[in-house]
Amino acid sequence: MKTEISEQEHVILKKLVNSGINISPKMLECVLNLENPMKNINKLIKETSFIPSFKSHLTETIVHEISNEELQKTLKRALSKSLSLPLKKGAKSKVTVTLNESITENFKQEVDPIKVEQIIETSMPEEMNQVVPNSSLIKKTLSIKKKVKIHESTKSVFTFKPVAKDHDFHFEIISDPTGKLYTNGGYEDFYELTLDKYNKLRNLMRKRPEASSATNINNIYRLSNSIEISTVGLVEKVHQTKKGNFLLSLEDLTGKISVLIQNNSKNLEYINIIERTFNDQMLFVKGLYNPGENGRKGIIFANYISKIDIPTDFKPNTSPDPLSIALISDTHIGSKEFEEELFKKFLKFLNGKSSNKILKEYAGKIKYLVINGDLIDGIGIYPNQKEDLLISDIFKQFEKASELLSEIPDYIKVFYVSGNHEPVRNAIPRPAVPKKYCEDLINLGIKCLGNPSLIKTHNVNTLIYHGESMHDINRLIHDLDINKPIETMKEFLICRHLAPVFGEKTQLAPINNDLLVLNKIPDIFHTGHIHINGMGKYRNVTLINSGCFQAQTDFMRSFGINPTPGIVPIIELDSLNYFQLDFKKIN
Q1: pLDDT of residue 52
Q2: What is the C-alpha to C-alpha distance for residues 29 and 142, in angstroms, rounded to an integer?
Q3: What is the DSSP string of 449-516?
Q4: C-alpha–C-alpha distance, residues 250 and 234, integer Å
Q5: What is the pLDDT, as a whole number, of residue 261?
Q6: Per 3-state DSSP, what percentage of the chain is helix, strand, and coil (rounded to 5)?
Q7: Would you state the pLDDT for residue 48?
Q8: Residue 388: helix, strand or coil by DSSP?
Q9: Which residues contact 80 (CB under 8 A, 6 or more apart)?
């Protein structure tokens, strides 16, 4: 009796065949036993594309190499269930009939016949005998195989047809500091910078519902009785008292006031905020004001504290088109440690020169590429750098970079933001690399931008910041770790500033307009600099630190940095789903 193939099996088999994957009967039955086969088959196809040892044969062994722990556990449970229900002797399984009698009939109009033949050849004879020891089935299979006419289609399923090529560029440079960085470097410039920072952060804070009633510090000092009040201001200093409480000094344009937060069970939420607070951050404080006596100034006993943060209901923009953006940084071309072969693998991937159909699909959707600083290694950036250089001429470093980047397909728009290794000033905001260095890149159509910059690509806003101040934040907040860049990036969003503390290692340019304030919430926030890959989300903002294409140098080793080269994050602009490709594992 012939068992008809179900619609679900039809779709699953079609997905596998189109992805160039051969599946054993046991594994197919395992997939069909999953709680949600249609959802999990897409995850399974994606996961197998990252397994170096995967050679198109989906078997039980491959399950143990899947990196997605939840999917791996689900498959193991389904496998266990399948194995616990052995077939009766001589019985035809649903899987058997599907592979033998229905695959050609159902797919011959939709799938390359060559691939169908490959599935039958590689999956059937080896494993079907173990399930159903019936030689007539194999003969029937082979007869079906012979009926498939090869000349019906000579078109390979692996032909590279980039979707991105069918779409025009739609991008806008929303902000770029280049050409806006005039300064004399005097006291007045620093004062104007601080004043602008205060006003912008205060305006952002006042948008929070609870901060609308905040009053100036000078008005608080006029009060003669204890009363509940609220105010906003920049933190001047914060320290812990001998009793374990926290005392901070808050200032605005009218004055300065002390705020005490008692370290008790009622204030645990606010103690956590204060422990992650440092100078120059904007705070909203609410509490009981106690006027001073005998010439002493009053103090606020806080019972509520908050930072500006990202609204919890923030809804990011998405693209109407099925396109993607790839994010890289810190290639350090010219360094002896530049991972050129890995980078060439990435370029090969962008051109669709992969034997893996899934990777071809990923590549074909990429419309934009961001290079977030340190494209070249530069000259004289750190002590004894010359010993680490393969190319010791800055112009030749850019020449090599142009040679490599010329391999990127012309339908992909490339944005290049300056980092701390580029031949521009070190203080941020930083202008774009001057034309005299990167004219060849400009001739390739690459858009050179300053640091930080905000771009819109197909309706999605991406904030590109190289990340110089990440080291300062990591030093000031005790539980942050250089190996977990996403946690550091969250702090930038919480205080809405890319270099929130003044006077640390990060050099800040004294201009009268603070371009590091995050007035506009990005849909994607992209950093680099620390050479550690990271991906995550915070209140619907997608966070990416793009790692590097440079192996560990002696200078990195001295700081305890173990880089993660060759890992490229890719974000789908229509959904903001993200994933990463590790080119160390891709052939």
Answers
A1: 57
A2: 22
A3: E-BSEEEEETTEEEEE---TTHHHHHHHSTT--TT-HHHHHHHHHHHTBSS--SSSSS-B---SS-TT
A4: 6
A5: 95
A6: 35, 20, 45
A7: 75
A8: helix
A9: none
Return the bridge partners of 287, or none: 229, 302
At residue 130, the pLDDT reads: 34
What residue has token string 């722990």?
69
- The letter for the amino acid at 474 is N
Place of tokens 């194999």: 138
Q: What is the pLDDT of residues 464-502, one digit of tens each?
A: 999 999 999 999 998 999 999 999 999 999 999 999 998
Residue 378 confidence (pLDDT):
94
398: part of which helix (H) or strand (E)?
helix 394-405
Terminal-residue alpha carbon distance, the chain: 45
Pairing verdict, β 413-417 and 447-449: parallel
177 close to 451: Cβ distance less than 8 angstroms: yes
What's the CA gap between 230 and 305, in Å, rounded?
A: 10
Angle at 344 between CA 53 and CA 361, to 5 degrees: 60
Catalogue all structural domains in the chain, each as residue range(s) with its CATH number: 7-152 (no CATH), 172-179+318-582 (3.60.21.50), 209-306 (2.40.50.140)
The one-letter code for the residue type at 36 is N
Residues 1-7: contacts with CB within 8 Å, 24+ apart? 1/92, 2/97, 2/101, 3/92, 3/94, 3/97, 3/98, 4/102, 5/97, 5/98, 5/102, 5/103, 5/106
Secondary structure in 3-state letters for 359-380? HHHHHHCEEEEEEECCCECCCC
